[in-house]
Amino acid sequence: GAGVSQSPSNKVTEKGKDVELRCDPISGHTALYWYRQSLGQGLEFLIYFQGNSAPDKSGLPSDRFSAERTGGSVSTLTIQRTQQEDSAVYLCASSYRAGPTDTQYFGPGTRLTVL
Amino acid sequence: AQSVTQLDSHVSVSEGTPVLLRCNYSSSYSPSLFWYVQHPNKGLQLLLKYTSAATLVKGINGFEAEFKKSETSFHLTKPSAHMSDAAEYFCVVSDEDSNYQLIWGAGTKLIIKP
């Protein structure tokens, strides 16, 4: 079946502008995660959604970052007033549930460049 | 809190020789551990995972990893490297305290010499 999809694949923006990144998880997956990968680094957790529960926002680096998940499916990560340090690849992952044996499947990512 | 340390940022081996990518973890619990691979300009792919069953875990593309609790290690190995194995490899632990979010090592870049 279809995997996790993300759009756009690349986004170039000017400092101070807002951006929206989209994630379509695998159908039927209740858990959705956003991560950020800076150049030469491992992934950094940003935010987690599980079903209709309140999201775990503990990884968001500042209040300029927010995310929502509509209808338990598609998620949008919004970055307001972008800064150059926001430049990174933003990855979305989904899993059937959130548990120790549940594999997270990753989308191809959105490469964000802030000029 | 859980953490992961990948001991080598780069590993270079000749084609046909064994591969060893080292990973040590820190966890209060019996952890779930994963290895993911990221080929250039491609998405992350799960190689294998350990979830408290057999300590020797076999994955895709001939890779395997052994969970050693006494050494808090989860090293990735392959008997014979192929050119197509050139990629970045990430050792990952699942954080039971935080909704099973994945905690990532910094990655090891595997270079295959012809």
Question: What features would you describe in this structure?
Answer:
The complex is a heterodimer of chains A (115) and B (114). Chain A has no helices and 10 strands. Chain A has strands at 5-7, 10-13, 19-24, 31-37, 43-50, 65-69, 75-79, 88-95, 105-106, 110-114. Chain A starts with a strand and ends with a strand. In chain B, the strands form 3 sheets. In chain B, strands 2, 5, 6, 10, 11 and 12 form a 6-stranded mixed sheet that branches. In chain B, strands 3-9-8-7 form a 4-stranded antiparallel sheet, with no helix packed on it. The mean pLDDT of chain B is 91. The interface between A and B is medium-sized, with 28 and 24 residues.
- Please bin the fraction of helical residues of chain B: under 10%
> From the helix content, strand content and strand pairing of chain A, which structural class follows?
mainly beta
Give the helices and strands of chain B as they follow along the chain.
Answer: EEEEEEEEEEEE
Main sheet attributes: strand count, strand direction, barrel closure of chain B: 6 strands, mixed
Distance between the termini of chain B: 41 Å
Work out the radius of gyration of chain A: 13 Å
The percent range for strand residues of chain A is: over 45%
The share of residues in helices of chain A is under 10%
Number of strands of chain B: 12
On the 0 to 100 scale, the average pLDDT of chain B is 91
Poorly predicted segments of chain A = none
How many helices of chain A does DSSP assign? 0
Largest interface: A-B, 28 and 24 residues
Radius of gyration of chain B: 14 Å
Q: In whole angstroms, how far apart are the ends of chain A?
A: 37 Å
Beta-strand segment tally of chain A = 10
Structural class of chain B: mainly beta
